[in-house]
Every structure is written in C-alpha cells, then in structure tokens.
Design a protein that fits this description.
CATH class of the largest domain: Alpha Beta
Number of strands: 16
Protein name: GCN5-like N-acetyltransferase
Shape: globular
Radius of gyration: 26 Å
Keywords: Membrane, Transferase, Transmembrane, Transmembrane helix
Number of domains: 2
Pfam family, one: Acetyltransf_1
Number of helices: 8
Largest sheet: 8 strands, antiparallel, barrel
CATH superfamily of the largest domain: Gcn5-related N-acetyltransferase (GNAT)
CATH topology of the largest domain: Aminopeptidase
Mean pLDDT: 85
CATH architecture of the largest domain: 3-Layer(aba) Sandwich
Strand content: 35-45%
GO molecular function, one term: acyltransferase activity, transferring groups other than amino-acyl groups
Distance between the termini: 83 Å
Length: 333
C-alpha cells in the first residue's frame, strides 16, 4: 500500500513540476515576444472615414493590452462610441485582427492590418460602416501617447519656444512671448519630454474692447463674441506649437487642455482659437472637433499684409504671394 501511495505522490509531484516548467516556458516566451514587439500602451488613433460625403481623418483614443503576441484594445471616440480590437502579432512585426463595435445597436465590424514601426502602428482597416450603412476601408494608424510633463513657461523657456515656432510658423511670427508669461491675464505652458521642450501653448484673457486687434476692422463678428469682448470675458488660445517630429502623439491635446483650463480659471466665458489655413487645409481642425469648438469665420487674406511686407518668414509662402488664410473657432464655457 505504501509503495503504491509513494508512486502516486511521485506522479503528482512530477506532474506539477512538468506543469510548472511548461507554464514557465509559456510565460518566458510571452515576455520575450512582448519585449521584442512592445506595443502595449495608450495611443492616439487616426482612421479615414466619410462625413457628409467627404473624406475625413477621425481622431480617437486606444488602450492596448498585450500578452505575448496577442493584443486586445479599446478604441474610443470623443462622443463615447467605442470598438474592441482583437489581434495577433504575426511575421516580422505586423498586427492582424478584427474589430467590432461595443454598442448593441452598432453593427460596425471589420478587420485591420498594421505594420509595427517603433512607437507607431500604420496600416488599413476594412469593414462595415454602421454610420454610413456601407462597406468601406481606409488608412488606420496609431501613435503612442508621449510621456510628457507640462509646466508654466518661464523666461528661460523663451529660446526653446522661439526655436520650435520657426519651422512651424516662420521666423518673426511670435515676438511677444514675455507678454504671455509675465502678464496677469496671460498663460504660457511648455511640454517636456525627457527634459526637452517639445511643445508650447500661448493664451490670454483679452482686455475689454480688444476685438479689432484680433479680427481686424472690416470683419463682421457674431454678437456673442462682441458682448464677451465688451464685458471682458473673451479669451484666445493664440498658438499651440509642437515639434514636427512629435506631432500626433497627444502633446498638442494636452497643452490645449491646460490652456483652456487656465482661461476658465481667469473668468473667460468664450474662447476663440485662430487656425492657420494652407491650401484649404486647417491643421488644427481635428483638435477643434475633439474639444467641441465650432468654426465661425474664415479670412483668406488675414496674413496677406504682414506676409508680403515680410514681417515674418512664412514657411508656406509661394514666391512673393501669400497663400495662407485663417479660420477662427469658438466655444462657450
């Protein structure tokens, strides 16, 4: 009897050891694969879609969890709609999988294929578009959210701010950074990544009756903005600048959120944001939609006089002609 019991115990212990070894090898393999292709994290996600018959690039947030080569994530739009993505890392650095809408009334479902490129994933989606009731496809890419710290700008940050602004807006476009830093109504922030300034934001609460300095003499302004101007409740987020190499990683969004919050603290009731328009494209349009700002005015010759007098060196200027305009957005707080 005892030898038999001994054999049983030996078998059980042996089985446990084998199971533990197998489990350990599986975990080790998963850790190796995760280290080889570490894509777990938070991403800004962009996908091509159709709105009112026009192609648009939609911005959303995606959180990805990874277990070895298996990835599961949730893709969430600003309006709360979300999709679950489920895929596997295949080959030499690709992700293939499927997505499906989380809402029971949404039949959106499809597949995606992405190439891993450092902190970015880039590829295509294809599937059924529940909003437009049709099958469609388009580009689908992910940019990992930057690990940044945001702080109030100081005089020591001015050289970094000016150096960032030159490739974005041209030399001479920004001259009054100190006014935003030192003024009681001003707000200036910088974003740092690995102790390097990679973005900045300049905003202020406008003085009473300061409207024409912002819009010009000939523009017809809506009554809500003129009232806020007279009452001293108007604010402007003049500039959001992010290093070209770090754009699309959530830095501009974080800076904008900080600037908007500070203006609200200063008693601003309506915020106006100017957006640079180049060849019909407004770079901040996606950011404005994300924060629920509405366009209300477009001036195709807003920069013309300053640009052609070479008061600043526009990076988009074609020969001697100014080709840029401005689109204004607004939001009531």
């Amino acid at each position: 009897m005892f030898p038999a019991l001994h054999d049983v115990l030996a078998g059980v212990i042996g089985g446990i050891i084998v199971a533990l070894i197998g489990w350990g090898l599986t975990v080790a393999k998963q850790l190796y694969e995760k280290k080889k292709f570490p894509i777990e994290g938070e991403y800004l996600t962009y996908f091509e879609d159709m709105e009112d018959g026009q192609p648009v690039m939609v911005t959303s947030l995606t959180s990805i969890k990874q277990k070895g080569t298996r990835i599961i994530g949730k893709n969430t739009l600003p309006d709360g709609r979300s999709w679950t993505i489920d895929g596997n890392i295949v080959g030499t650095g690709h992700v293939a999988g499927v997505y499906s809408a989380d809402a029971t009334y949404d039949d959106g479902v499809g597949s995606f294929y992405l190439k891993i490129n450092g902190d970015n994933l880039d590829g295509m989606w294809s599937g059924y578009d529940n909003e437009n009731k049709t099958t469609a496809s388009g580009r689908y890419f992910f940019k990992k959210k930057a690990q940044i710290t945001i702080s109030e700008a100081t005089e020591a940050d001015i050289p970094s701010i000016l150096n960032l602004s030159i490739p974005l807006f041209g030399e001479g476009y920004i001259k009054d950074v100190s006014d935003y830093i030192n003024s009681q109504d001003g707000a200036a922030f910088v974003a740092r990544e690995n102790d390097k300034v990679v973005g900045y934001a300049l905003a202020k609460r406008c003085e009473k009756n300061d409207l024409r300095n912002l819009f010009g003499e000939d523009e017809k302004i809506s009554v809500d903005i003129t009232h806020a101007d007279k009452a001293g409740y108007l604010g402007v987020i003049k500039t959001i600048g992010v290093s070209p190499q770090r754009q699309g990683h959530g830095i501009g969004e974080a800076l904008f959120k900080e600037a908007e919050s500070r203006l609200k603290e200063k008693g601003v009731k309506i915020i106006v944001v100017p957006g640079w328009v180049d060849n019909g494209k407004t770079n901040i349009d996606g950011l404005m939609k994300h924060f629920d700002y509405s366009p209300f005015m477009f001036d195709p010759e807003y920069w013309k006089a300053r640009c052609e007098k070479e008061e600043f060196q526009c990076p988009n200027k074609k020969g001697t002609a100014c080709v840029c305009g401005i689109k204004f957005y607004k939001k009531s707080l």
